[in-house]
Amino acid sequence: MNVNGDTFVIEDLAVEVEGKEILKGVNLRVRKGEVHALMGPNGSGKSTLAHTLMGHPRYRVVRGRVLFCGENTLELTPDERARRGIFLAFQYPMEIPGVKVRHFLRLAYKAVKEKELPVTQFRKLLQEKMDLLEMDRSFAERYLNEGFSGGEKKRNEILQMALLEPELAILDETDSGLDIDALRIVSGGINKLIGPNLGILIITHYQRILNYVTPQFVHVLMDGRVVRSGGKELAQELEAKGYEGIRHDVLAAEGG
Length: 256
Known about the structure:
Elements: E1 6-17, E2 20-31, E3 35-39, H1 46-53, E4 60-68, E5 71-72, H2 78-84, E6 86-89, E7 96-100, H3 101-113, H4 119-132, E8 143-144, H5 150-164, E9 168-172, H6 180-193, E10 199-204, E11 217-222, E12 225-230, H7 233-253
Helix pairs in contact: 3-5, 5-6
């Protein structure tokens, strides 16, 4: 397959967890500058895909390839994938008491960029990113995710993404646990980072985040496979029919 110009290509990816096959041949392609949404019901394999893409040891790849700029990332460690420009925003970010946000972000920047900025230069860069995302600068002095609301945890993930400037961002259920106001704020941050050098894969159960972040492409993951792909109107069809309606349509098309 010719992958020139493609940021990210998943080919026939099959993954098992504790001997059970969860992903059964996923195919997906995300180019720089594109926003994709991967939607699916609970248990369809969405989070399995996200964790596999970043190299979580619990998930065993049975077959397939994951190409990033032509390189098979399945052969790389998680930190090597991050240094290549792949970023994962977690569904449930961890709390780290005693570690300030700015200290964590400086360490993350050093690890991913493989260079250390002087303190004053890093502080200026961090403040620029916080201003871009309309975040109060006092946020950087808090302990990482300790006592954070769901919206604050997700905003911190988006701040990290802004600072690291990845080429591919995988947002795993970023809308999970957010009320409408928090969802609007977090989505606004995502929209400010969309650009020609960034491919985004939004993994979500609900259509609601797509009311604020508009994808060019929508994919439906069911039973470990991508069963439908289309434009943003596919998300609206999902909202109207539900996942069972889509499943019925797929079975009918397959003659099942």
